[in-house]
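Its record is retained below.
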Amino acid sequence: MKTIAFHLNCLVQGGAERVVSNLANQFAKEGYKVYVATEWVDENEFALDERVTRVHVGLREGDEKKNRITKFFLRVKYLKEFVKNYHPDVLIAFAQRANYRALMAAGKSDVPVVISIRTDPVGHYDAFSDKVQIKWLFPRAAGCVFQTTGQKEFFKPYLQDNSAIILNPINPKYFGLKKPESRDKSVVHHARLVDFKNQPMLCEAFIKVHEKHPDYVLKIYGPDSFDGTKEILDKIIADNHAEDYILLMGGSDELEKEIPKGAVYAFSSDWEGLPNSLLEAMAMGMPCVATDCPCGGPRTVIRDGENGLLVPIKDPDALAEGICKLIEDRELAERLGDEASKIEQIANSEAVFVQWRDYLEKIIRK
């Protein structure tokens, strides 16, 4: 029986955490011995199959009082103990710090480490400290999984050569939804309220849309990240007396019922890895207008004019124009939505799992 271990901070509900929990559960069902090594336990985490073993490799009692550098090396030490005690056939790290820790912890052992890039490398992997760690540690990686071509092209050829590009799996509840007989006069968006998703720009764009189409409303679904974005949105709404047509809906567990009611789906991020919200909207058959943000997530799944529309980042006029185009040309909108729903063929859980399994088996054989 092959043994696979995943390493990340925790399993709180987020993009990388969802991918890890899905993969861990699927590998366990396929008969692999699976470990998930995390730094801490958080609230509202994804559930693991009972056949998956979770191991704590984070700080222990009393460690929090120590200085930052000491805590960093303790984290590496505890993960190194995990590698030695459980000796997986491959260790897969998710997210920036976890990538560094895993490569340091595996050290000179014979356990291969696969790292995973989950965000835009620009701004996240280009600080001086990152450049030092990348130069020192990344050549040790047995492989790397990217989400987009843009991520892959950021790094040196030695990392690109042993890599794979694999999409995030989409929750199956978003597939095969019945198209509404008539759509509401609304533009919809779902994501946590956070700065880089630039919902303020979406509101500015929609104010322009509303001038042409005063019978349409904007519905933004998503929880507050408490970084100040919601307060900015509240001010934009108040300053423009938009309380009746820009609606902050909060989080929802029934997005598969709410999102398809809308006429257009709008995506406004300045940067992303591979945005789950956009993938989900496409899976639901939504006509999508998306910013062509780095590192190429939307462009990875949207063919402009075929299964969605791409517009420049930070350009409310372009976003407004795209939204109006789909409001005014419903035949085009529905055709784009029908084509978008075909993402199910390449981003269902089974298809994504097979890609991961085949790639990791190749790494293990090496």
